Amino acid sequence: MTALLVLPQPIARLPTLRSHHHRLAFLQRSYKLGPSSRVTAMSSSSSDPSLETVAPRAAVTSERKLNPDLQEQVPKPYLARAMAAVDPSHPEGTRGRDTRGMSVLQQHVAFFDSNGDGIVYPWETFKGMRAIGLGFPTSLATAFFINLVMSYPTQPSWIPSPLLSIHIKNIHKAKHGSDSETYDTEGRFDPSKFDAIFSKFGRTHPNALTEDEINTMLKSNRNMYDFLGWGAAILEWKILYKVGKDKEGLLQRETVRGVFDGSLFERLQDSKKSS
């Protein structure tokens, strides 16, 4: 039974409207539905094929599910946030965090800018990797690779930097493919894409990823012939799993959220200093 069956006027006299949302708005105006009735009426949306997230003949849409209730958990989840990494547990982003007017992607990279000049050199990347708990050889190799790949796209001119500097103000130009797309092309944080990481691939635990699930995600996100993107994504997630997994070998949702705005790096650095 739905709320439509208890309306005081014949439904047959409703005007022809273009969509379920138009019909519902008409009913709310005409019959002044209360909050409980409105929720019940909305339940009929499940019969609207335009809202389906699973296609019967596309098995992959059933295997990698989306969260149909995300808009009830996060305000406007379709709206990419410029400065806050939000999710249902953090609707306003990391509490008490000073964004300094930077995009979420810029905040992520700014951790490695040790002197705050807006430029990250290889030795600063190395220092940051050591600060979050990576060993000397891994930090050295990772720092060289990251600055080698990301330096030129972020330069303010067409002239390459012999010091492989990364300019934070242009870091959005160094965004690679074959990723989760949680960062959009301008460096904002997309809540719906972040949530999809766990709704699609968190099969064992709804808010955590196992190492096997991370590997499945990496393969699933690959864009065709995007070899650089494949390698960059593997490097990022393997490092994150190494420094961020818990005692059960799980990568928790909060850990992953923290890496996007860089707050995880600060927590790892503080933890290493205290130990």
Query: Which structural class is indicated by helix and strand composition?
Result: mainly alpha
Question: What oligomerization state is this entry in?
Answer: single chain
| Proportion of helical residues | 40-55%
Number of strands: 4
Shape: globular
Low-confidence stretches: 1-21, 23-45
Biggest pleated sheet:
2 strands, antiparallel
Strand order of the largest sheet: 1-2
Could you spell the SSE succession in H and E letters?
Answer: HHHHHEHHEHEHHEHH
Determine the N-to-C terminus distance: 60 Å
Number of helices: 12
Average predicted local confidence, pLDDT: 88
Strand content: under 5%
Radius of gyration computed on alpha carbons = 23 Å
Describe the structure using short key phrases:
12 helices, mainly alpha, disordered N terminus, single chain
Structure description:
Mean pLDDT is 88; it is low at 1-21 and 23-45. α9 packs antiparallel against α10 (227-244). The protein has a two-stranded antiparallel ribbon with strand order 1-2. Strands 3-4 form a two-stranded antiparallel sheet. It has 275 residues and is mostly helical. It has twelve helices and four strands.
